[in-house]
Amino acid sequence: QREVVQQQLDEVGDYVLEVLANSTFPQETHEMFQELGIGTGAMFVDESAGGIIFKSIPLTDFALRLSPFGWVEGIYRTRKLTARDAVQLWGERYTLPRSVREKVDGESPDAQPSVDFIEATERVYDEPMVESWRYTITEVSDKETFVDRTERGDGSGFWLTPRWTTASEEVYGR
């Protein structure tokens, strides 16, 4: 019995290592640790058709919100993208607002209109003892939310946000 369980665990471990090796995890972790050197790091984690995506985000590009217990429970990010980049980034997985799609249709290579977005990831406390996170993306000018996903289960958050040397009630590390 024990050998069978060990074999199954080895297979799962090999699979996890293969997924990580075929992703951007090594490069993005390195970048996140460089940011962590100044106190706070952040890495966005999501799925794509090609596997798992890891993306280190510089400290200047996001804001954190803490729970009353000092845990990170909100990560917020603003982004300015060309309409074409927004389609490339999210168009296959989500239905983008009509205003964004129209800008792409009318876009010439020389004129690249930009679009502002807000990404918000917030801890949801709707079920006791169940970790849940809600991830939304909103196009700012039309105030249209076109991504609204909730993930449940331990480790279901979309972000890794290590911080070090934080005093009581400090949001960011030093």
Which short descriptors sum up this protein?
174 residues; alpha+beta; 3-stranded antiparallel β-sheet; 4 helices
Summary?
This protein has 174 residues and is of the alpha+beta class. Helix content is 28%, strand content 33%.
Describe this structure in words.
The protein is α+β, with helices and mostly antiparallel strands. Helices cover 28% and strands 33% of the residues. The strands form 2 sheets. It has a 5-stranded antiparallel beta sheet with strand order 3-4-5-6-7. A 3-stranded antiparallel beta sheet has the order 2-1-8. A hairpin with a 4-residue loop joins strand 6 and strand 7. The longest helix has 20 residues, at 2-21.
Strand content: 25-35%
General shape:
globular
Radius of gyration: 19 Å
Helical segment count = 4
Tell me the distance between the termini: 49 Å
Q: What is the average per-residue confidence, as pLDDT, rounded to a whole number?
A: 90
Largest pleated sheet: 5 strands, antiparallel
The arrangement of helices and strands along the chain is HHEEEEHHEEEE
Total strands? 8
Helix share of residues? 25-40%
Structural class: alpha+beta
Low-pLDDT residue spans: none
